[in-house]
Amino acid sequence: MKRAIAGAVLAGGQSRRFGRPKAFALHEGAPFFTWSVAALDPIADELYIVSHPSLVDEFRRQTDIPVLLDVERCRGCGPLAGLYTVMEQSRADWVFVLPCDMPYMRREVTERLASYIDPMFDAIVPLHGVRPEPLVALYHRRLRSVIAELLDAGERRMISLLDRARVRYVDAQQLAADETVWRNVNTEGEYR
Ligand SMILES: Nc1nc2c(ncn2[C@@H]2O[C@H](COP(=O)(O)OP(=O)(O)OP(=O)(O)O)[C@@H](O)[C@H]2O)c(=O)[nH]1
Ligand SMILES: [Mg+2]
């Protein structure tokens, strides 16, 4: 049975370290967020961008993909809020999240990670040695109530969600031969 996947580009952060909205910074001539969209598009049955009121107009100028705002009670509460918002919006079994600041990410990686989907698990997450990569991951919608509880308790860390889920960790080396794909841009220095 085919299991629907909603692709979600998380773009509701403040880019404080970067100094301007990093979703729109250019990599090889195209805005960062479009690289995440391109990596999700082949495997996603639906696509969403989850952002912040201050960025919505610019996203709508640049793309036709639906732009959601974090649900109000946890707006701006971090990536968990974005994940929760897509689970509220979509009926898809799985939500595949990507951040908006990983412009080297490639479809080969997302396709491979999605091939590990297994209904016995709640989340499918890459692992670098002992370090998980929770923002490049698949989450089953059955986690929605767990996420709601975390957010209501003021708990924003993705790792807290992993602690409460049955996680299928996938060795990052199985997903990409080239470590570059995991590069994430937080500062102007990393950008240059
Ligand atoms: N939807 C949503 N996405 C978020 C939120 N906070 C962060 N993100 C996204 O999660 C990803 C990782 O966050 P960070 O790297 O910390 O990005 P950021 O928060 O914009 O940057 P800093 O302000 O420098 O921490 C980025 O793609 C952010 O846009 C939020 O409250 N809601
Ligand atoms: Mg942040």
TrEMBL record:
It is found in: Cytoplasm. The N-terminal domain determines nucleotide recognition and specific binding, while the C-terminal domain determines the specific binding to the target protein. GTP binds at L10, A11, G12, K22, D70, D101. Transfers a GMP moiety from GTP to Mo-molybdopterin (Mo-MPT) cofactor (Moco or molybdenum cofactor) to form Mo-molybdopterin guanine dinucleotide (Mo-MGD) cofactor. Its EC number is 2.7.7.77. It comes from Geobacillus kaustophilus (strain HTA426). SUPFAM superfamilies: Nucleotide-diphospho-sugar transferases (SSF53448). GO terms for biological process: Mo-molybdopterin cofactor biosynthetic process. Belongs to the MobA family. The keyword Magnesium applies. It holds the Pfam family NTP_transf_3. Residues 7-161 form the MobA-like NTP transferase domain. Mg(2+) binds at D101. The keyword Cell membrane does not apply. This is Probable molybdenum cofactor guanylyltransferase. InterPro entries: MobA-like_NTP_Trfase (IPR025877), Molybde_CF_guanTrfase (IPR013482), Nucleotide-diphossugar_trans (IPR029044). GO terms for cellular component: cytoplasm. Keywords: Cytoplasm, GTP-binding, Magnesium, Metal-binding, Molybdenum cofactor biosynthesis, Nucleotide-binding, Transferase. Its main location: cytoplasm. It catalyses: Mo-molybdopterin + GTP + H(+) = Mo-molybdopterin guanine dinucleotide + diphosphate. GO terms for molecular function: GTP binding; metal ion binding; molybdenum cofactor guanylyltransferase activity. Its cofactor is Mg(2+).
